[in-house]
Amino acid sequence: MPVAAAGATHTSATKTPKKGPWRNGVRNIGLNTWEMRVTFPRDALTGKQPSHTKVFHGAYEEAVAERASMLAQASMSPRGGARATVGDLMDAWLTRCEDRNKKGALADSTFENYAYQVRRLRKSAPNFLAIRLSKLDSSEPVEELLKGLEEDHGVGQSGLVQTHKAIRAAMEWGIGRKWLKFNAAKYVEDKPAPPKKKTPKATVEEVRLLIETAPQVHPDLAAYFLTAALTGLRRQALTGLMWGDFDWDKQTATINRVRNSVWGKVQTVAWAKHRKGKPAPVHLLDPVVVDTLHALHNAQLERCKQTGTTPPSDRTPPSDGWVFSYDGMGLTPMEPDYVQRHVKAIGDLAGLPYRSHDMRHHRGTELIAAGVDVARVAAELDHEDISLTLRTYVGATPAGDTVITALGRQYVNTDRLDQKPVKKAATSREIAAVHEPVLFKAPRRSRRGRGVPAL
């Protein structure tokens, strides 16, 4: 064993090599060993300036290339980085909405609306989309955007409401993903709101006038008005009805599908997807509706016969045929917007300002006035919450006063109430009992105690 020289110092630990200076974010810490450092801009959420270090083994040029790759990857982080803009946030949020739509968690109409709002912002407000999220510390940019869309691009109140909703939803999503810490759209002053028009409830006489006027515009819309007024179905459900949806023996109609119009594009959606897995509702049909629909079906078959057209039920493959169709033969269904335009035309001819949806309000009002239970009315109108039915259709009416004052008759014999009470003459004993003074009678004493009344 070798002997250490005199005066030599023995150390068991290895001496740490001296680290070199930083060059391009890289410094040498050993033989072909480099330490890389990436410094990010200051975080808008925490106010800190984060950094990341990594040890790399190899040549210096390879270490510099690896650091450049780290920088590129950091700029593509889910948080968008400090240079992320409102446009980056809107694009990432819309991608997330698209994923939810494919999974069925977001309705097609809602996603199409969001996509339209983002496209309009790209075309009309590129300066707003270029704002950095780190600089978005007030609601003024959003307020100026809405003002510019209204004054410079002619966007109406309904369009401004949809744009504001989309921006607010995107920023709320960004806060949850740490893109930003302030929702500028949430604190906008004078939030846009469409003007609310209060249309009076249609009476039976007015609905009858609309039914009589409808054939001047389309021969099948009289049946449409009557079916809408006696079922309360929305026009999306009415235009989606097919003859196979009816059970004539039970006099019921099953709503298996709806036809939605989203930005001019009509989509036929199954009820389960439209209502997120809920079973298709079954509506009881009034005998008047049954007779009217039978007459409409016979009219469609007669038109097919006169024009030499094969009915949908005789085609290959066979089809049930649409109840309300353009051609009047059940081949091509009416679109919701087409129905709305023609309903307005019928209302103009009749001098009545009603829409197709007003027939739904008419149905609810008539059911409540007829004394139908509110829960049953809510089920008939497909209201998720009974409070909506109470707020919309239930109100104090003068006709209810008569019912209130007549409720007591069910507790007594009504024959006795109709007779006048006979007043009997009082006897001498009753008269004496009235005028006789009442004397105090002391309680009987108990055996166990004095002055204590017996129990």
Keywords:
455 residues, 18 helices, DNA polymerase, domain 1, hpI Integrase, Chain A, elongated, 3 domains, mainly alpha, 3-stranded antiparallel β-sheet, disordered N terminus
Shape: elongated
Overall helicity = 40-55%
Q: Give a short account of the largest sheet.
A: 3 strands, antiparallel
How would you classify the quaternary structure? single chain
Would you report the number of β strands? 8
- Named CATH architecture of the largest domain: Orthogonal Bundle
Along the chain, the helix and strand elements come as EEEHHHHHHHHHEEEEHEHHHHHHHH
- Find the CATH superfamily of the largest domain: Intergrase catalytic core
The proportion of residues in beta strands is 5-15%
- Rg, rounded, reads 40 Å
Strand ordering within the main sheet: 1-2-3
CATH fold node name of the largest domain: hpI Integrase, Chain A
Number of domains: 3
Q: What does the average pLDDT come to?
A: 81
Q: In terms of per-residue confidence, which ranges show pLDDT below 50 for 5 or more consecutive residues?
A: 1-14
Q: What's the tally of helices?
A: 18
CATH class division of the largest domain:
Mainly Alpha
Category by helix and strand content: mainly alpha
Distance between the termini: 117 Å
Molecular structure report:
This protein is mostly helical. It folds into 3 domains: 26-75; 86-187, DNA polymerase, domain 1, CATH 1.10.150; 204-393, hpI Integrase, Chain A (Orthogonal Bundle). Helix content is 44%, strand content 9%. It is built from 18 helices and 8 strands. It has helices at residues 60-75, 86-102, 108-124, 126-129, 140-152, 157-176, 204-213, 221-231, 235-238, 271-274, 287-307, 336-350, 356-369, 374-380, 386-393, 399-406, 414-418, 428-435, and strands spanning 26-30, 33-39, 51-57, 246-247, 252-254, 257-262, 265-270, 282-284. The strands form 3 sheets. A 3-stranded antiparallel beta sheet has the order 1-2-3, with helices on one face. A 3-stranded antiparallel beta sheet has the order 4-5-8, with no helix packed on it. Helix 8 runs antiparallel to helix 11. It is elongated.
